[in-house]
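User: Can you help me understand a structure? I only have the sequence.
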Amino acid sequence: MIEACDLRKSYGSTVALAGVSFRIERGEIVGLLGPNGAGKTTTMKILTGYLLPDGGTARVAGHDVIAEPLEVQARIGYLPENAPLYPDMLAGEYLGFMARMRGLDPGGADADRLLRAARECGISEVLGRPIGQLSKGYRQRVGLAGTILHDPEILILDEPTSGLDPNQIVEVRELIRRMGRDKTVILSTHILPEVEATCGRAVIVIDGHVRADGALDELTRGQVQVVTCGAPDAEAGRAALADLVDGATIEAAPAGDGLWTFRFAVTDRDGALAERIAARIHDRGWSLRELRRDDRTLEQVFRELTETAFAAGEGAR
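Assistant: Let's start by predicting it. Here is the structure, written out as tokens:
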């Protein structure tokens, strides 16, 4: 449905994309995740035909974004970070304007499309109000309604909850999940809970490169070792585990009753690490309350990838 292959783009001496590749199948809700300046918006603008890449190719619904831009744009609904709304227009007038831009007849044969989009986005009751008088949450909904008037196969949303309050964020997330039942959705954001709440898969872009691509449960699965034991203090616990953790950073936190909990990323897959940790704790004469593997959070995955990319960049300079 969406395929990017070795996309490259530079703005003068600044490299925005340095060979980005991924594929999104029909019916997926995918988070395009990365820090500010990572290349997310540039990728989306290329996919929508707004920007031309310096190199590489992109296809949307089987159409090349360079050779067939109108075919691509007919099949997507695109909501940029700052939706192009007109504050003096009534919400209903704006939807009519957007419908006509799409070649629809909002006052005739396609009137039901406008009403259906308004109902789907929960804005039916504000169609007669000026957009400038609406809350940001409602303005965002109006923008979303404008993107789905032509019933696109694909939705491309850039920071759709930026600047919203917590209640509005929940509402927009639910709207995205509903639309994702029968559409392919790519959602660009640097807000990690946004991806966890709405997406089944994440593509993480850092410094113009894809650093990770997979289902959320695959990216976060069982990569953290948790040890709760009777170490006398944090430093003693870290010292006891230091040569077992393959250079990983050991996080320590008091667990009450004189116990400490230590967490660190692991690469060991054969289960032998747990035995070695248990033996080390026993040798120290400490009690062992808990020893388990835990899933990483998406925040931990993101931080590890960012730190790795930064370290590699530092080394190249």
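Now, to help you interpret it: The radius of gyration is 24 Å. The chain has two domains: 2-216, 222-294. Let me know which part you'd like to focus on.
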